[in-house]
Amino acid sequence: MATFAIFISALIFADYSGGLDSGGILLTFLVMATAFVLLALFPRTRGREVIPSPGSDLPTLISQTQDWLEMQRRRLPQQTQTVIDLLESRLEEVSPRLGGLSASDPAAYELRKLLGEHVPSLIKSYTSLPAALTHQPHAGSTPAAQLHAGLETVAREIETIGKTIAAADLDALAIRGRYLDTRYDTSGDHDRD
Question: Residue 100: pLDDT above 60?
């Protein structure tokens, strides 16, 4: 859009000034290329930070959490980067299974609490600390280690929630398989209806 605006501005200038010479054309393309490269290297500045909201529907909440975690990543210690990756992969795994989950389901409630309340408050508690205190021991551990442990706990709990959600599908598949075996067993061991 910036390069298009520069091009249109050059056309308007050329119309009012009686045309562009070869230097003007070259300068226009140089400014357009510079704007393109600068905007490609330094994309728009950080937009409004959207904190995950427990009131959002689950797919939106997961998307908000992933976006928010990416925005927070640079503010968090290096040792937490792998656990953030793990947390994001757990969210990607559980996301497709949310379609059949009702809002009143205990798994949905726990997911909302984890993503809408616990994760943001855990990270905000860490990022509000002065940098000098983040690696000093307090309450038996450093704040950086406490953040890491807390995020690992969240990742494990999301994995557990994913397994709980999948358990219903696994049970339905097993029941359907047993029914089909019983209903259509051709070995003669079962009576047909």
Answer: yes
